[in-house]
Design goal:
With 475 residues, the chain is of the alpha+beta class. It contains 23 helices and seven strands. The radius of gyration is 24 Å and the shape is globular.
């Protein structure tokens, strides 16, 4: 075989994804989308209507680019949001079972972009990665195995590796998350000195009970620091190797994310990454699993067959390759920019969290904190409009419980960092509306205060009260 032929064979082997791995990836995506919708549904009125923390007027003023692409922003009422949530959930189920997989992936992507754009203040790196995974999914044969689509295809059900520009793009996209994060961590001091995980586990706002327990074992956290950095540095092996080595690296990274899920409140981010890592598992893993296709065959007999347009598949395949190649180039350039190899325009219309995969890098957060909302009712009573009860600036027994969810924590962190005062002012206005709608007493005025507590590890940690907004209710 010629050198060119050996090179093509080498690259094809490393760009390949087993059809069953793609099926597991599809099932994972559908499941994560459903869970994400369910978690967001708890605060649909607070985050996605004009009653909530980001009315459309403020959205259009502060984030015009996002507002322009959001179907959810067409109405400020609750009814449209619930309808769109229901449609998105139905599409996620279609993706999960592989019912018109590519169409379900495309429409899920459209609604996910719309939902995320309706309130960009609550987004994190997991949302960005989920959106990108869906984008690549549109270009991939997700229904080749373990699906309703597979039950209805006239093609042979021969399972095995699939290699294309799109599969290569998906693999590169996932590895870029780890490679960029590793490069950014190496630019700081905390991760190399073994103190970074100790700093992370000193942030009470993130910790679950198991995380609070582990925070008392600094030696264990130091070991976890070095182990995670080593795994991040080893992440390029996901592209450079195949078979057992690739599968082992992916499994170890997945275990790390499951550890994060067990110890910290990070929303769906750990589950998104675990889903992404499924595509690196080799055929030998899937060979050991029972074939679930008969269940999808039975489901296919119960579902209606939608009419399929007469499509010039040769043209579609060429178009898919072109789009995949362009996206792959974009992934490479964008992530090179994240570590300073190339420059991107300063006015690029993206959130700071979109510019790089900088989770706890180059240094972890060094300030913990909690929020209070001192308020006076029309009868002169002094209350905390956020936490309830009387106003206290003392550290709560459980800081994490002062944040109703990971998205609330992300929102409030963005409020504290936002250059202007409109977000904090809108939050204060929301507190007025929420209190007055749920209490007999009415608020006359309210303030938003962030109690910051810098992390000092083994030293005393003083607090600082930062007033972010003052607002008169009823205006």
């Amino acid at each position: 075989m010629s050198a060119a032929g050996r090179l093509r064979r080498f690259l094809a082997a490393r760009a390949a994804i087993d059809a069953r791995a793609l099926a597991a990836f599809r099932i994972g995506l559908g499941s994560v989308l459903l869970l994400d919708l369910l978690l967001r549904l708890r605060n649909v009125r607070s985050f996605y209507t004009d009653y909530g923390v980001l009315p459309r007027e403020t959205l259009y003023r502060e984030f015009p680019g996002f507002a322009s692409v959001s179907i959810h922003a067409l109405s400020g009422g609750l009814a449209l949001q619930l309808a769109l949530f229901a449609v998105a959930a139905a599409l996620a189920v279609c993706l999960l079972v592989g019912y018109h997989s590519r169409l379900a992936a495309f429409l899920s992507l459209v609604l996910l972009v719309s939902l995320q754009a309706r309130n960009p203040v609550v987004l994190n790196a997991g949302d960005s990665l989920l959106r990108r995974l869906l984008l690549w999914s549109v270009l991939l044969p997700l229904g080749r195995a373990w699906s309703v689509d597979a039950a209805r295809t006239s093609e042979s059900r021969t399972l095995g590796p699939l290699a294309s520009i799109a599969t290569a793009g998906l693999l590169v996209q996932v590895v870029a998350v780890y490679a960029v994060n590793a490069a950014l961590k190496l630019q700081g001091d905390a991760w190399l000195s073994g103190t970074a995980v100790r700093y992370v586990f000193s942030l009470d706002q993130f910790l679950r009970p198991l995380g609070e327990l582990l925070a008392g074992f600094p030696a264990l956290l130091t070991a976890a620091d070095y182990a995670w950095v080593a795994l991040l540095l080893a992440s390029p092996l996901l592209l450079l190797t195949t078979g057992r080595v690739r599968g082992a690296v992916a499994a170890l990274l997945s275990l790390g994310h499951l550890g994060m899920l067990a110890t910290m409140t990070l929303g769906v981010f750990p589950l998104v990454t675990v889903t992404a890592l499924l595509v690196f598992q080799p055929p030998l893993v899937w060979d050991r699993l029972p074939d679930p296709q008969p269940r999808f065959d039975r489901l296919a007999a119960r579902l209606p067959e939608l009419p399929r347009p007469q499509t010039p598949w040769a043209l579609v395949r060429r178009g898919t390759r072109v789009v995949a190649a362009l996206l792959l180039c974009f992934v490479l350039v964008w992530n090179a920019a994240a570590v300073g190899v190339v420059q991107t325009p300063e006015n690029a219309p993206v959130q700071p969290s979109e510019r790089s995969w900088d989770m706890f890098a180059p240094e972890p957060l060094s300030t913990d904190g909690w929020y209070i909302a001192p308020a006076f009712t029309t009868t002169g009573e002094n209350v905390d409009a956020w936490n309830g009860g009387t106003v206290s600036y003392a550290k709560p027994p459980d800081v994490s419980k002062t944040y109703p969810s990971a998205r609330w924590r992300k929102y409030l962190a963005t409020v504290a960092l936002f250059d202007g005062r409109s977000l904090a002012g809108e939050f204060a206005g929301y507190l007025c509306r929420e209190w007055n709608a749920t209490h007999d007493s009415k608020l006359a005025r309210v303030s938003v205060v962030f109690v910051a507590q810098p992390t000092r590890l083994d030293r005393p940690e003083p607090t600082e009260n930062r007033t972010l907004a003052n607002r008169t209710c009823g205006r």
